[in-house]
Each structure stands twice: as C-alpha cells, then as structure tokens.
Design brief:
Chain lengths: ~350, ~425
C-alpha cells in the first residue's frame, strides 16, 4: 500500500471500533464484532445472563427503554429474528414499529438515504436493520444523525452479530469457558453472515480452534486469511470437537452449480448420529435455524440430547435485550456530553 | 487566427537550464534556450515552472450526452485541462451510446464549442454496447471516432468478439477492450480475496480478467487486429501481454492510475468511493502493474475518470455505481508514486504522453513545428482535491483530504490557454 492508500484491513478494526463505541468505550451501535474486544463481548454475555431471569418472570418487563422508539427496519424478510428483536424491545418497554421495506418505500423507487431521513423525522431512537447488502448497517450508521443507535440484524454475507453472540451465550452456558474449545462450523460458509460473526466471536473469546468444514465451492476465496483451519472431510473434521455448528443450506445453491444435490451434500456434510459419534462425547450441536431436516442435520440429532438448538432461541431474546439496552445507554451518555458541550460554548 | 504566445524561462524536468517557447497558430515555432525577442500577444513568465508535454487520456467518461447530473463535456474537459491533459478520448458509454455517427457528431460539436482541449470520441464496438451486434465502425470512424471499445461490458460470446476483431482488422481500426469474462465476474464488485472473505463482499476472481485476456490475445493473434487492452488489474495479465508481444501480437495496454495506488484493502471500511471496475486487487498485483508501466509493457496510464452525482455513491457498497473522479489528480497521484520511489518520472510521463498517443496514432511531445500542447507546473507545491477545489462535477476523488504534490499553473492546448491558475 502507498502512503495515500485508504484504510488497510489492520486499521479496519480500529475504524469499526470508533464507529461502534463512544469516546469512553461504551457501545453506541452494534454492527459487527470487528473491533470489539474480549471485555466488551464478555460484558454483553453477562448483561444477557441478567436478562434471562426477566423472561422467567410473570411480568416480563423492565423499563430500560421506556419512552424510546425502536424501528425494526427489515429490507429482507425474516420471521424469527424480527420477532425476537420485537419481543426484546417490548420487554425493555420500548415502543416498536415494524417496517417491512421489501413491500414498501424502496419498491416505489425511494432511495435508502431518503427512507432513513423520513424515519429520523419520526424521532426514532434505534434502528434494527436487516439488509441483503453487506455493509448496509455500516452505511446507515455513517449516514444517520447522531443519537440514533443502529443494531445489525444481518447484512448480506457480512455479519449477524446478535446471532453470533447468542451462540456464544449458549456455548458458555454449556461449556463455562471458551479457552481450550474446539469448534467446527459446517456447511455453506461462503454465503453465511452467521459464520463470519461466529468466527470472529470465537477467536476474540479465546477458543483454541475454529474449524471450517465444507466443500471448496462453499468456502470463500482466500479462506486461509480468516485464521481458521479448513477440513474438506467431515468425518476427519469431527475429531475432538466440543461444539459443532451446522449452517442452513439454501436450495438455490444447487441451481448455481455449487453443489450437485441435497442427497450428496447430506451424505458428505450432513450431521447424522454416526458422524456425531466421532466428536467428543459431550460435544454440543448448534444450528442458527431454521433447520432443514435431512439436508444438513438428521432429526435424531436435532432433537437429540446433545442438541442445544432451542436454548439458542431463548438466548436470542436475552442477547438482543442486552445489546439494545447497552447501545441505548451509550447513545444517551453521548447526548448528555454533547448537550453539556453545547451548554459550555454558550 | 494568428494569436501568438511567448513562454519565458520554463524548465524541462530534470534539467537546469531554462527554455523559451514561441507559439503561433497553435504550433511551437521556436523552442530553445535563448531569449526570443519576437513580439507576442500573450507573454507568460514561467520562472520556477516545469514544462511538460500535454497529457493524453485513453479512457475518460465525459457523461455527455445523457448524464448531465454527473458531468458534461464542458465541465469535465475543464477538469481535464486542470489535470494537465490536452487530449482525452471520450468513452462511448453515454446515453445514448456512441454507436452512431449522429452521437459522434454531437460530441464533437459540443466539444468544439465548449471544450478547452481536444476531445477524441471512441465509438462503441457493438450496438448499444450490448456485445451482440456490430456497430457501424467504418461510419463511426469517418465521423471521427479514433478507436472502438465496449466500455466495461463484455461481448456476448467469443464468436462475436472474433468477428468484431476480424471486421475491425479489415478496415485497420483499433479496438480498445476491457477484458472481462462476465460469467466469472457475475455480480461481484470486489477482488475475490481476503477483504471479500472477511467482509462478505461479492468477489470478482482474478481469472475473470486473465481468462478474458488470454482469449483476446489468442483471437487478436489469429485475426491480426490492433488490440489495446484497457484497465488491467492483475499481475498475470501484464505477463501475458508481454509474452504475446514477444510473439509479435499487435497489442498495447493501459492501467488506471488508482490501480497503481490502492489495493483491495481500500474497501475494508465499505468505502464506496473505491468501488471500481475492475476491482482493486492485491499488493503483488499493484507492484506488477507498476513494473509493467516502468518497463513499457503497459503503454499508458489512464484516468478512467467517472464523475458521479452524490446519490450514485450514497448507498450500501454493492449497489453503488463504480468509478471515481480522477482526471484532476492523476498526475499528482503519479508524482506521489515517484516521490516514494515506486515509479520513475520518466516512465510516468511516457505513460501519460507518447505511450497513449501512439495507441491512437496521435503526435505527442514538445518540438519546434509540433502542436503547442503543454502545461506548466510547480511540482513541489501541494493541493487537496475536494468539492471546493475541483472543476469536475464528480467529487468522489481518490485520497480525499490528502496533500497532493504538483500544482498546475497553465495548460496550453493548440496554442490557446486551456487552464490558468487563478
């Protein structure tokens, strides 16, 4: 790179950190795990732990976001993620507006920037964004006026940080710590924002090994740069595993000539009882859902004793409550210091 | 018209002595070290200024006709004049596409009345740049097109490409093609490497370019067409061009200035400014492209100037429009490479003057009896490219807010003042 060159990748973490954290290190947006350190991720997990108890009460509410408006801005359809974000916001006592932009403004030709300006005019405090383009929440965070928190609910192939964190919470509940863990992620890594965020989270939290198991057509180019080990043969790849995370396989992958058939994929990379037996006996099985039974996972495994798939869903609400409340308090702290500065100038 | 111009005390780069130039009717009449005493209509005291031949750009998007919100011939040629260019080739990717004599005539008419420099239209090689039907290349050539290109679009298939080459060869026309295998490039917008892997960007593999370079070189060898490969981005492409030339294939090549400065890492903050086609690649590609310019395998550096309105870049990276507004800063960016010892000044100047001029069979350089196309610079002064300082309508410049070396004071095209620093 030359002197004039823009942000190198090594500086990307710093830029992501600056975008997401306030001057004194509080979370104000939650867009990517890049640039967030182990202490911050642990703080998120601890906060989520404290919210799990709220879900067990008869009256499942805390007033942390009372009077705040949260807009669920979904440019790509989703049932599960949107409902857990909605539930999380409501348990924090926020007012929630659900916008399905697929069928609304952008199909009338309105640009994303204009849609945002209109929503800001409604005095929203937080946008929960899902978008089919990698980097969309990044762009939104850089475009909106200060004071609005952006939470990434999944962007293109880039990141799905709340999903990764709820997975980390699930792992911590089962394994207590990350040191020494061998974790495999199996399946369509190339197209998976979940995998990218999980890799980052596991590496930051200190997992011993992150192993990617997939055929070459479902791995990104230059996969070695991700700092993981790569295994094409799943039977070999199951050895010594503490955690195996299965990814959802989209049916379109067959049409794009990335795979020959679901049957062949299941035979080679589907998690069945036989393959699971090759891992450590206490290996847990995870899946971000929705699962394709008989494509990436056998029903007996998905519903079996080693599966923690349903715990993941419960943890999803707690993690989302944690990042929403933390980002909101970061924004409030910034607003306070901004108005204090303005007061000082007068 | 008999306007005359006298330049006193200019210095050629790397030389201690000064020269004087006397220009009349657009031609350099005398150029020597002695003071010229002839009376002139305009006298420029060029003490402390460096005299450079006018630059030639093989790939410049002027946005007219059809894209006035991004720029027009008047605005973008003024910007080019400020960049030191006296000749720009106008890419056919306009609206309508320059695939008919009427559009070529329109471009030339507007340029005649509003451009301070020479504008040479490049015709579309295929109708509507669709890559399926040949355009009227001979008619376009007669109307003034100096070469034929398909913009950033690929030919539909190798058969069309082969016929396009065979037809151009028949009439001794030059094809300037950007090599891309569309099936491999697909919907990608970033180099298929470590940044794309980490950020989940849609990748364009290196082989999307190199497979096309190989195909084009084989077909050029077979048809005998004069082929110019535009905007190379891969080390392997430069190797293949050098090897084909050794075999006697008539092939020349260029690279965009931004490919010599930046790599895939420029996209690591999702910065849509650096969304370009072909994508910025790796450090070893960048080094190989620089070496290609230095040893002459790459004949020309182009601006690949693509001014945009702000809306074109205000969106998530993957849906932004590609390209930067570069023509005002190309030479300054080149000087930064010279300052870092990555490129010699001699190679930089060759790639901006005689290299590209030869591709389109134009004269270049400074000599008595030649066209008065030159510029005068303070090479050590600095400036910054930004909305306040640019003449182009496009503000998405490479290296915004950075000090750029090389401030132009005068640009003279065909003996007339094309740009003067105010």
């Amino acid at each position: 790179m030359t002197e004039l060159a823009a942000t190198p990748l090594s500086a990307h973490d710093k830029a992501s950190r600056n975008l997401q954290l306030t001057a004194d290190g509080q979370l104000r947006h939650f867009i990517t795990l890049d640039g967030l350190d182990r202490a911050m991720l642990t703080d998120i997990l601890d906060t989520a732990d404290s919210f799990i108890e709220v879900g067990e009460r008869t009256i499942k509410k805390v007033p942390l976001l009372r009077g705040r408006t949260v807009v669920n801005l979904f440019f790509e359809s989703s049932t599960r993620t949107r409902s857990t974000f909605e539930l999380a916001a409501k348990r924090l006592s926020a007012d929630v507006l659900n916008l399905d932009i697929n069928t609304s403004a952008t199909s009338k030709g309105e640009s994303l920037s204009d849609t945002l300006l209109n929503l800001e005019a409604m005095a929203s405090d937080m946008f929960v964004v899902r978008h089919s383009q990698s980097g969309a929440p990044h762009f939104i965070a850089e475009s909106v006026t200060p004071g609005v928190a952006i939470i990434n609910a999944g962007d293109g192939r880039h990141a799905h940080p709340t999903q990764a964190m709820l997975d980390m919470l699930t792992i911590r509940q089962n394994k207590q710590q990350f040191e020494g863990l061998k974790v495999a992620i199996v399946g369509d890594i190339l197209h998976s924002r979940v995998a990218r965020s999980q890799i980052r989270a596991l590496q930051t939290l200190g997992a011993e090994e992150v192993r990617l198991i997939a055929p070459g057509t479902l791995l990104p180019a230059d996969v070695d740069s991700l700092g993981c080990t790569v295994e094409y043969d799943m039977r070999k790849g199951m050895a010594d595993l503490d955690v195996v995370i299965m990814l959802r396989l989209q049916k379109e992958r067959m049409e794009g000539a990335l795979l020959p058939s679901e049957r062949e994929f299941y035979r080679l990379y589907g998690l069945d009882t036989d393959k699971l037996a090759l891992a450590r006996p206490d290996c847990i099985v995870m899946h971000p859902g929705p699962i394709n039974r008989g494509v990436e996972i056998e029903s007996a495994v998905a519903d079996g004793p080693q599966s923690v798939i349903l715990n993941q869903v419960t943890n999803g609400i707690a993690i989302r409550m944690a990042v929403m409340s933390m980002a909101m308090s970061g924004q409030v702290a910034e607003r306070t210091s901004r108005s204090r500065q303005q007061g000082g100038e007068q | 018209m008999s306007a005359s111009l006298l330049i006193h005390n200019a210095r050629l780069p790397g030389e201690e002595t000064t020269v004087d130039l006397f220009v009349r009717d657009g031609i350099i009449r005398t150029m020597d070290e002695d003071a010229i005493t002839e009376a002139a209509d305009t006298v420029i005291d060029a003490s402390g200024l460096i005299l450079l031949p006018g630059f030639v750009d093989l790939c410049c998007n002027l946005r007219e006709p059809g894209n006035g919100q991004k720029g027009n011939i008047a605005s973008e040629t003024r910007a080019a004049a400020r960049g030191g260019f006296t000749t720009v080739c106008a890419s056919p990717d306009t609206s309508p596409v320059n695939d008919s004599g009427a559009v070529t005539n329109l471009i030339r008419d507007v340029a005649r009345s509003s451009a301070p420099i020479r504008v040479l239209p490049v015709g579309a090689a295929t109708r509507g740049l669709a890559g399926e039907l040949l355009s009227d290349m001979v008619g376009l050539s007669n109307a003034g097109c100096v070469a034929f290109s398909n913009g950033t679009h690929a030919m539909a298939n190798a058969r069309i490409l082969r016929r396009c080459m065979a037809y151009a060869r028949t009439f001794d026309l030059t094809l300037m093609l950007q090599p891309v295998n569309q099936a491999l490039a697909a919907d990608g917008y970033a180099h298929d490497g470590k940044v794309a892997a980490r950020l989940g960007l849609l990748g364009v593999p290196e082989v999307a370019e190199t497979a096309s370079v190989m195909e084009m070189l084989l077909l050029a060898e077979e048809t005998g067409v004069r082929l110019h490969l535009g905007q190379l981005s891969c080390a392997r492409s430069v190797e293949m061009v050098a090897e084909a030339r050794m075999r006697g294939v008539s092939v020349t090549a260029d690279v965009a200035m931004h490919q010599l400065l930046f790599t895939e890492e420029a996209l690591s903050g999702f910065d849509s400014r650096y969304h370009v086609v072909p994508p910025l690649r790796t450090e070893s590609d960048r080094k190989a492209l620089l070496k290609g310019v230095e040893d002459g395998t790459v004949d020309a550096i182009v601006s690949q100037h693509q001014p945009h309105d702000s809306a074109a870049k205000q969106a998530p990276l993957g849906v932004t429009e590609p390209g930067m507004s570069t023509i005002e800063s190309v030479f300054s960016l080149g000087l930064s490479l010279v300052a870092q010892g990555e490129l010699s000044l001699k190679a930089l100047l060759r790639a901006l003057t005689e290299g590209p001029a030869t591709v389109i069979k134009q004269a270049s350089g400074l000599a008595s009896g030649g066209a008065a196309n030159f510029s005068l610079w303070r090479l050590d002064d600095t400036w910054q490219a930004g909305p306040q300082t640019l003449l182009s309508r496009g503000f998405h410049v490479p290296a915004p807010g950075r000090d750029l070396k090389g401030v132009i004071h005068w640009n003279i095209c065909d003996g007339k003042v094309a740009y003067r620093r105010s």
